[in-house]
Specification:
472 residues; mainly alpha; 0% strand
Length: 472
Amino acid sequence: MARLLNQGLILISPIILVRLLTVEDFGRYREFVLYATLLISISGFGINSSLLRFVPDSPDGGSRFVSQSAALTFASSFLIVGGALLLDTVFAGALLGGFGIQVAIYVLFFVNLDFWEFLWLAEKRSFAVLGYTTTRLVARIAVVTTTAALTKDVMAIVWSLVALESIRLLISAAGWRARSRRAKPQGEYRWRDQLQFCLPFGGALILVAINKSLGGLFVAKLLGPVALAHYSIGVYVQPVITVLRNSLSDVLLPEMVTKGRETLEGKMALWRRSTVVASIALIGTGVVLARFAEPLIRTFFSEKYLPAVAIFQLYLLVFLRESIDFAVPLRAIDRTGPILRSNLLALFLNAALMFALLPRWGVLGAVGAFLISRGVEGIYLGYETMRAYRIELRALAPWGDLLKVLAAAGLAALVLAGSFWTEQLGLIGVVLGGAAYVALFALLLALLRVPEAIALLQYIRAAPTFVMRRLH
């Protein structure tokens, strides 16, 4: 729920900005975000996310791991940002599109002392995560949109973000110092263990970030800011994956570490069932978004962004691949090497396909290259997971239930056929059509006896009581 709310807030920001800025200025702003996001992913190196692995395994030494993470992140961020600035200087500012200093300062402020979300997840304090991330995103959106409304200037927006992150860094430092004073130091420093985990996994995260950003980089450098603006709206649903799959994966990993440590089968049993839950969420969402892509983009981004409709619909195919997160079972047993190799393979394949497809198909070629590379990466990781857990393909995932999810999604899509929902009812039809699809999809899953669907329905019915009990 925290991720859902936060990503919902992130999705609001572009809707406002496209009305305050020209298409070209919005493309320039997205160019800054592209460079900053890529460097944030590289500088962070997955160090803070390692808390999901080590804090549950050694709760008494949790504060030690946080201190290690802060120190490692500080060193990593300064090395990466310094190297990026040096290269940008060598290329006369062309590498970072004229945003060199702004990107460097923003990334350093953003990355450092940003461990709270993973620490609280490891401690099973989801409500703390909700408060922290929501406050941070609301502040960011308020600053960006207010500055855009007052100045209509991209550089002013960028500097306002830098100022906001400097305040966040100071508050985070004060909060950690206060917590450290209250806690008694326990456990020993385990630099080697954390580095052994982070080096391959962090390398893999860097490759994932580069692979995701590669399309935007190619489009920005070869096709210009207007094409980048259309591409950004076309891949607008990328945060949905963070909500619907990564939230599940981040909660699942500590559970696999603590509860499934007796046998490999104990770890895999929990993960197999989670793939069905992720598939239900991602595939169902993808069908609705694909059907109503044009009215959604027309309504929220105006007709200037209608060229993004085809990009948007094609990109939704990535939901099929993202339904199965092979990285979680490998991370649970510290087998992060295959994750690094698979993403290296995907990156090279994506770059090669980008050169082949972009000149001929434009922005659609960039999306197609990414889809193919992610598919190949998934096949390789599936093979490595079978090797690590000594299982055959039929035992890798609950294939029968996954096929039932696909069948239910396809059959439920019949309710969206025709033009009635949009031509007769307009935007209200999108809401009603989506609700009709979800209801029929859930009914078909229940009729097909998919265990996770039945459990989800039970949890949804019990959710209000649970939330009220926790708040009380």
